[in-house]
Please model this.
Amino acid sequence: MLAISNHALACKGTEYDWLHTFNTHKPTIIGPFNIGEMESRNLIRINRKWLPFGNQNDEWKEMKNMYKKGDNFYSVIYKDSKGIAAQHYLIRNNCIIKIIVVAVS
Model:
């Protein structure tokens, strides 16, 4: 499993909304989720303790702290002949605020 996190550029009025970026990739989009749902759906056991996003808990906390009323979280799964990638997005007004990549195979 490859674990990467990055900040995405938020929309500034000229970029496409976040769903437009998926037109060529055709992923499975699940959500929207609130904070509690994201944490319960992404519990990983680390050293006998269950943590949201496991070893990426710090990245999750950063993303969670960026959340504002009206924002949504989505899980996005990409599948093709080369493998599977899973990402979690924080979306505000149809703009990507942050992405956490949690699995690549």
Residues 1-9 have pLDDT under 50 and may be disordered.
